[in-house]
Amino acid sequence: MVEINATNLNVFSERNHIIKNLSLTIPANQVTAIIGPNGSGKSTLLKTLSGLMKPHSGKIYIDKQSIDFYSRKQLARKMSFLMQNPEAPGSMTVKELVSFGRFSHQTWFGFNENGQDQIHWAIKQVNLEDKSDHCLSKLSGGQQKRAWIAMALAQNSDVLLLDEPTAFLDIRHQLETLLLLQKLKRDLGKTIVVVLHDIPQVIQFADYLIIIDQGKLIHQSTIQSNLDPQLFEKVFGIQVELKHNPFQGASLTIHGVAETQGS
Fold this sequence. Notes:
membrane, 4-stranded antiparallel β-sheet, 6-stranded mixed β-sheet, P-loop_NTPase
């Protein structure tokens, strides 16, 4: 089980200060959701945590070891990252795409039997067994998204970083994906970090919540802690009702747009 810590992260894009002196903890063996308004820096933060982007200042630690200690191949065995809108040639099959997730484990002799088993397992988890040999161009947008998720699963890393994994999925496959993440956490001890937009789904399925706005950390806590509805009004401009049930967990209902001063 792997914990991630970030201290005093600053990330710039050209002249824009995207991530601003941000420190946070990603708890081990939990599903952590990162939420925030559009343009708040969620995707940039995820790329930085994955090692894909280097912060201009600050440090990232994986189980108290600096991320700079790892080679690219070692880091790929530790963390898998699925970006928001990945692309691949339409002629590539589902199995070929998913096999890319095994490259950090590949030897001079190719994939071993365990690697092939991992590919088949990953495809099964996203219910694409009957599409394994189909070209990506023949799949729906939602099926393509699930194929990419399978590639991340095939990497068999301790940490999964997923940028909007439910985007373009219908409601059934959204729920199946979120349940799968919970299953990976529960059964395999994975540490999972997701960027999501559906706040009620976040409250229902995540264990830990991180809210950022304008590149700054606004809040981090467990979902089961007594979240303040005014937090969502302040950051998102919405009126919500939060309920905590010791047996069914937390739930959030959106009642409408918050009134602004002078309206």
